[in-house]
Amino acid sequence: MGFVTARALSLLVRAPIFQGAEDADLQPLAGLATFSRLSRGQHLFQAGQTIESLYIVASGSVRVYRLSRGGRRELTLHVEGPHQVVAGGAAFQSRAIYPAHAQALHSPTEMLTLPVDAVRHAVFNTPTLAQAVIAYFARRQAELLGRLDTLIFSELGERLAAYLLEHAAAPHALPTNSDLAALLGTVPELISRKLGEFYRLGLIVLERRTVRVSDAAELARLAGGIAREAGH
């Protein structure tokens, strides 16, 4: 097994979309994988393009977003980090076009690329892969509904505290205030103000755009029900 194939297989077995699948079922896909790098702001794909590849983040992060009808506002749908598939659901639809735009948030962001036809064939003809993919999309739907509830019924402080807790395991490179505002359903000015408040309270340490959680217990208290639902 070559280096690229071995590295791809290591990534695929850790990707949530293939959780529970057998290594032997993923090895043929790993043999078709390639890796590429994106600079910050570079697009992985744009809405309306035909889907020819399935992308999984190897390192860095990718923002998936949509534009308003006038093209003046952006709504971040989600941010995908390492091991996460980007817009995977669309790859299995009959009308296989990307429903949104995707661009790298960090430089470099490395992507694993698989030919989508090969992925479909493998999933449709391999029971363990099919079970893994179905379970993954069921989890994603539940997460999406949870996020919708969060945006509608919680305060910004709760949402930001929950976001910081979600990335508390290690120092985290924050998206820009505009990107974070779009992700949390607010405006950049309020994000800046709330981050400053958390910093002054000693809940986080900020060094340029890298944040480290210093008081997870207080953030969990501020996050309230959001943190409890997420298991923090």
TrEMBL record:
Alphabetic keyword roster: DNA-binding, Receptor, Transcription, Transcription regulation
Protein name: Cyclic AMP receptor protein
Domain of life: Bacteria
Name of one Pfam family that matches: HTH_Crp_2
Classification via InterPro entries: cNMP-bd_dom, cNMP-bd_dom_sf, Env_Response_Regulators, HTH_CRP, RmlC-like_jellyroll, WH-like_DNA-bd_sf, WH_DNA-bd_sf
SUPFAM superfamilies: cAMP-binding domain-like, Winged helix' DNA-binding domain
Ranges for domain HTH crp-type: 154-217
Biological source species: Deinococcus aerolatus
Keyword check for Transcription: yes
Keyword DNA-binding annotated: yes
Domain Cyclic nucleotide-binding: 17-140
